[in-house]
Design a protein that fits this description.
Elements: E1 2-8, E2 20-22, H1 25-39, E3 42-44, E4 49-53, E5 59-64, H2 65-76, E6 79-86, E7 91-93, H3 118-128, H4 137-143, H5 146-154, H6 160-175, H7 180-203, E8 208-212, E9 221-225, E10 231-239, H8 242-259
Length: 283
């Protein structure tokens, strides 16, 4: 089966485990936009200017739409959309509740209960105890001490994959303006639960996770690798067409903004693609 991932061209990370790969390249393109937008929370105003907000919702920068699109291009062109063949013979279906955080943050409801037995449901609950639903940072700090979490981290001192995943979370935290000195504690717990869920799934004979990706693409399935050697590159890598994007997209987005005039403020997804097919800008 052919799957797609938005890969950084100069990535420091080599592991193929925990890769999220869509069955359509559209999801990968929309993922690039999503990562950029998460780093630059913004509003496109009716005069076509762009307001950038910090994590508290305060305006920290105003810029033109054209400059915002240049900034997006500078980000997008650091990626290519890679095509792979994946071996996923026995995937376990998950429910996408984790937003942009590790799978473990979704809590025990992450498993599609129709796929597992009652005894397995109890095993999942035990993995996630004392958490019973989606795990937000206050839940962690109300249930665990810093000492408890530091002990978890020590258990992974020799685990290269855990260190790599935590480094990715650190990079993301810095990109969105979080204080990782605090955020690291929730990240350690989320990753620990993710690794425990992976171990449980492999022990039950599953070789991957699969979920319906409703946030990116058109709701197609996306796969998460759990084993080395599951991916083989086809050699196809789509490049971002910056010049085409900059020549067309300002007009497209302005027309999109005009369609929203007279309506109340609302959240718009895939605005930087003008709510159109992003694959026009990858080749």
């Amino acid at each position: 089966m052919r799957v797609y991932n938005a890969d950084r061209k100069e990535s420091k990370f080599n592991s193929k485990i925990f890769r999220h790969l869509g069955t359509s390249p559209v999801a990968a393109a929309e993922r690039v936009e999503g990562m950029f937008s998460h780093q630059q929370h913004c509003a496109i105003n009716l005069d076509y200017s762009v307001s950038i907000f910090d994590i508290l919702g305060r305006v920290i920068l105003e810029k033109s739409l054209e400059q915002h699109l240049v900034d997006f291009c500078n980000y997008a062109k650091t990626f290519h959309i890679s095509e792979y063949c994946i071996i996923a013979n026995n995937p376990l279906r998950l429910i996408d509740l984790w937003e942009d955080d590790p799978i473990g943050s979704a809590g025990p409801m992450v498993i599609d209960k129709s796929q597992i037995s009652l005894s397995e449901q109890r095993e999942i609950q035990a993995i996630f105890h004392p958490f019973y639903s989606v795990i937000h940072p206050p839940h962690i700090f109300n249930s665990m001490s810093f000492k408890d979490i530091k002990a978890i981290k020590r258990n992974y001192l020799s685990n290269i994959l855990f260190k790599e995943e935590l480094k990715k979370r650190k990079d993301r935290s810095h990109a969105i303006g979080e204080d990782f000195n605090i955020a690291q504690y929730q990240e350690i717990v989320w990753l620990d639960l993710t690794f425990k869920l992976k171990k449980w799934a492999l022990g039950k004979g599953y070789d991957s996770f699969v979920y319906s990706n409703k946030k990116e693409g058109n709701g197609e399935d996306a796969y998460i690798t759990l084993l080395p050697g599951q991916l083989k590159s086809t050699g196809i890598a789509l490049e971002f067409l910056e010049d085409k994007y900059l020549s067309e997209m300002p007009k497209v987005i302005k027309e999109m903004v005009d369609r929203y005039r007279g309506r109340s403020l609302e959240k718009v997804y895939h605005a930087l693609w003008g709510q159109n097919d992003p694959m026009r800008y990858w080749k």
